[in-house]
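Supplementary Methods, section 5.1.

A reviewer requested that the exact input to the structure prediction be made available. We therefore reproduce it here, unchanged from the version used in the analyses.
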Amino acid sequence: AFAAAERASALPFEPGGKTELAVLLSRGDSAGWAGRLDEAAAYWRCAPELANPDDPDQLQIAGEALFSAGDDDGALRLLRRAESLARESTALGTLTIVLELLALSEARAGDLQAAHAAASECVGLMRAIGQRAEQAKALGILSWIEAMLGRESECRAHVKEGYTVLRDLGYDQSGSVGVGLLELSLGHAEAAVEALSAALSVRRDRLD
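The structure derived from this sequence is encoded token-by-token as follows.
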């Protein structure tokens, strides 16, 4: 993956645009996956310098880069700006991605209510525009947040909906991080281990 990202960075493209930012994010991600964390962070932290402050797509990529670098405050600042611009221009595709990243960033920053609001809106938009694969992903994030909030019935309902979507898409899903965390919070250690182990196994299979 890192070699592919390096080849992409060598291709001719207009500097200062979305493509350059996407390649920078890819190089950071690839370095991170390879365990070169300092190198990855250096790529990620360069992103805001290249982003056009009036372009929601570029701000979304830069926000994701800072999230990957562990800079929650910086990520939230860029993502909130991207959200505002995406709403103004009714760029629904961009807005859904921004809301997903906002949910993750708000959760990691400790504001679970804001995270839940962003994830809920993201799921609603995915349902409305029919992006089934992304809907399943957003449902996973929403159920994970609901597990941390202790909203058992909502968490289980959204996990069930996510399973249904994935089965419709031809995927076999037998575990859930959301259910695992929920069971853990309820003191059901064995059920938590079972759910989390199954979710990890599925992710490893997909990476292979």
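The chain has a mean pLDDT of 86. These observations are discussed further in the main text.
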